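hi! just following up on the protien thing from before. the input was this:
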Amino acid sequence: MLKGKKGFTTIDVLLAVITVIIFTSIIVSLMYNVRMENLRITSKLQANVLLTETLENIGIAKYEEVDNSNANLIPDLNESFQIKLNVLPIYNEGSGESQNLIKRVEVTVYYSIGDKIYEETIQRLKIKE
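and the predicted 3d structure came back as:
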């Protein structure tokens, strides 16, 4: 750098400060983005574990117990997750409600990170035995 006879010039100090500010802002921005992505991946992993546990509970439960209002099918949650259970009977064409032998179960887990709300959904069939 160019120096004056008595030390650094004002322009040298100004350029150094601007360079430090630019690099600091880039590094902080990258650190924030990495942290948010890590949090999103961890939350998605936890959501998938909740989905799997719910499907296992549905598989163990009796056919008659599988409905939208059965809270025993949903595992314990922490505050940041919400589970929605949607159970729909599947009827054969031409048959009445007496032929209700299959239910389609859709499990959705909602979680939020910052201002965004994410969801993971999975489906399975429950067959009357």
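Strands lie at 3-4, 7-8, 81-90, 102-113, 116-127.
The first strand starts at residue 3 and ends at 4.
cheers
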